[in-house]
């Protein structure tokens, strides 16, 4: 792999490059360590949170001119997380498994972190889905997707990692009606495909799919998750499809995952860009499905609600009523 992050509890991944890595770590422990009388450099895998060793940062390599990360396959001093099961199923380890995995993890480690991130960043998860599809889904549809995802235990599948959360959230949700939803301005290809293939379809002046002269159906789904590696880079994709009432595809688009975009959103600190009402709805779903204590515990596991959200929301998730804070957000 050619990406890394410094700690298991962070979200941002970075390219492995010598000078940038030196400045990022300040060449301090635990990233720089001496083992067997030799200096070695370490970081964390962005997908599975397990430690990796940086190979070729200072030594010339025979087979490549670029340094890269390699899983250690065991715990490393100074890194507080190692999970053998997550290591075994990490997409950077299982490079040849192009269709992901149907196997599930336990309710621990990565599974709990994914649950926590989806809740605390639910508005950003939905923002990415809207941006990728061109459909501004309502809070009601967003809530239904969340309920589907939880019922399918999407957070437990080994192909769900910390770097693909919004897209795998969509993939593990069921197909849904998008009647009444708004097609975002500028999405002319999608709008034209709907009107061309579903003659009964109509749009109002704001771009919402609305009633026509006859009854019709229009649905969406996310299918055919797959991944591949090119020059040691992990590429993940899913097909987004819009269908008519006969389940015929009227519009299709390949969505390629962009993990750094999601990380940048998480680290963006403008409160005007947040949608607290979406997170409030997600919190209601979690508390109904898992209970208030469990919900509070996973929020705190990922650092809490960040300072861009209302203080009242942050305060109520902490025992004693003290607001939670997320570093770097």
Provide a brief overview of the structure.
32% of the residues lie in helices and 20% in strands. With 329 residues, it is α+β, with helices and mostly antiparallel strands.
Structure description:
With 329 residues, this protein is of the alpha+beta class. It has 11 helices and 14 strands. It has helices at residues 18-25, 84-89, 110-120, 122-133, 139-151, 165-171, 188-197, 259-266, 276-290, 292-301, 311-316, and strands spanning 3-4, 14-15, 32-35, 38-44, 51-55, 68-71, 135-136, 176-177, 182-183, 202-203, 209-210, 218-230, 233-244, 249-256. The strands form 5 sheets. Strands 3-4-5-6 form a 4-stranded antiparallel β-sheet, with no helix packed on it. It has a 4-stranded antiparallel β-sheet with strand order 8-12-13-14. α3 (110-120) packs across α10, α4 crosses α6 (165-171) and α9 crosses α10.
